């Protein structure tokens, strides 16, 4: 495979006469650009985009026929005026579709979530949230008329590094806590004189809590490992969605009732998917547990199972009455070990793997996980799964 540097030299050393009398790029230049593993954008002397890889749009650099990122546009102007090339790192955020103005006659995202939960006729998916894109950008002049922008998306490697660092930090912390609790208990037992029974009881409770958190973390990590391989539809893995959700809700009613929280469930009992029942129950359980933990005492958690408008997907929606999630945090809540700032006494012992499990279960079942939330208005989470064929 030709190296990026060699391709760059071929592109930027093309003879000006090859393209100066045409509004489009010559075949050789187009072929070279097509060979690049990175995405490319070509703009003319009027800053109009004449060629762009599809990912340039999804990465938030191009809209219609124009560059929309100011730093890229500034680099284009510089190399056009002074030659050479500009290299820099760039972080963009692809705007979720829900941020656009609603089309006439279509419901807003909040209305959509309410429809799904109160049983109206057109349940649809709550809005998805985009994540940042980490890019490496090279801008150079092809000739007197055209400037090329080469974009390498390194988001996956950056996210992997973030997950790795979070994993090491969190796992190390959870592994150390039982050891520290054991040391504290041993110190109390070894102290000379009459042992303080109340102090021993307190430290024993701390040890039990640390072991419980470690056991919970290991269980969640095993769930994440299981939720890596895509589930293939077969006659043997056809399951009823309502049955799985009902089992989860019944298992959590006692814990919810202890705080005066009620769980209301409604929806279509005929919907079936192809999947792993254990994984589906685990994902729904994480959503229900979060909804209970973040909702105030004596409130209601709503769970709904509906089909989308096209009747191609089952949408399991869970609405809580919590404080909501700030927009700035919504693009990270599905990441492993990420914990937001909106913790309370019921959620503070979490380890940040619940929503990561929901996301991975959705992906292995060829579906998606999404959220709608606004500070002061609670949150609606949705697990969306393709319906089984008839």
Descriptive overview:
- The protein is of the alpha+beta class and 390 residues long.
- The chain folds into 3 domains: 4-101 and 132-153, Beta-Lactamase; 158-226, Orthogonal Bundle (Helix Hairpins); 229-390, Histidine kinase-like ATPase, C-terminal domain (Heat Shock Protein 90), CATH 3.30.565.
- Helices cover 42% and strands 21% of the residues.
- The protein is built from 11 helices and 14 strands.
- The chain has a 5-stranded antiparallel beta sheet.
- It is globular, with a radius of gyration of 27 Å.
- Mean pLDDT is 77; it is low at 14-22 and 95-129.
Helices, strands, pairings?
Elements: H1 4-12, H2 27-35, E1 39-43, E2 49-52, H3 54-58, E3 62-63, E4 66-67, H4 70-82, E5 85-93, H5 109-118, E6 132-141, E7 147-153, H6 155-190, H7 197-226, E8 238-240, H8 241-257, E9 262-267, E10 272-274, H9 277-294, E11 300-307, E12 313-320, H10 327-330, H11 354-364, E13 368-373, E14 379-386
Parallel strand pairs: 9-11
Antiparallel strand pairs: 1-2, 1-7, 3-4, 5-6, 6-7, 8-10, 11-12, 12-14, 13-14
């Amino acid at each position: 495979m030709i190296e990026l540097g060699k391709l760059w030299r071929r592109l930027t050393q093309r003879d000006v006469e090859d393209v100066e009398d045409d509004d489009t790029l010559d075949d050789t230049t187009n072929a070279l650009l097509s060979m690049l593993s990175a995405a490319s954008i070509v703009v003319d002397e009027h800053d109009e985009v004449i060629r762009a890889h599809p990912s340039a749009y999804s990465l938030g650099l191009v809209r219609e026929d124009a560059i929309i990122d100011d730093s890229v546009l500034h680099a284009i102007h510089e190399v056009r005026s002074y030659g050479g090339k500009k290299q820099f790192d760039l972080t963009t955020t692809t705007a979720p579709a829900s941020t656009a103005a609603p089309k006439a006659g279509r419901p807003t995202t909040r209305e959509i979530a309410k429809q799904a939960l109160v049983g109206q006729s057109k349940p649809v998916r709550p809005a998805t949230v985009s994540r940042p894109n980490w890019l490496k950008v090279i801008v150079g002049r092809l000739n007197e008329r055209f400037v090329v922008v080469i974009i390498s998306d390194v988001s996956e490697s950056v996210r992997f590094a973030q997950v790795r660092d979070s994993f090491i930090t969190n796992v190390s912390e959870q592994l150390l806590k039982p050891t520290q609790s054991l040391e504290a208990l041993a110190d109390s037992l070894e102290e000379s004189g009459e042992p303080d029974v109340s102090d021993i009881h307190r430290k024993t409770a701390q040890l039990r809590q640390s072991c419980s958190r470690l056991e919970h973390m290991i269980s969640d990590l095993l769930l994440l490992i299981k939720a890596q391989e895509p589930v293939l539809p077969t006659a043997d893995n056809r399951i009823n969605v309502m049955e799985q959700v009902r089992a989860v809700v019944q298992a959590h009613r006692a814990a919810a009732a202890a705080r005066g929280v009620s769980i209301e469930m409604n929806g279509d009992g005929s919907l079936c998917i192809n999947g792993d029942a254990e994984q589906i129950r685990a994902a729904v359980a994480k959503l229900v547990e979060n909804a209970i933990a973040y909702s105030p005492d004596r409130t209601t958690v709503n769970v709904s199972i509906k089909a989308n408008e096209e009747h191609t997907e089952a949408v399991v929606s869970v609405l809580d009455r919590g404080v909501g999630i700030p927009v700035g945090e919504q693009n990270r809540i599905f990441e492993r070990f990420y914990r937001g700032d909106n913790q309370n006494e019921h959620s503070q012992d979490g380890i940040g793997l619940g929503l990561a499990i929901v996301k991975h279960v959705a992906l292995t079942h060829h579906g998606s996980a999404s959220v709608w939330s606004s500070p002061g208005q609670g949150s609606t989470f949705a697990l969306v799964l393709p319906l089984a064929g008839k």
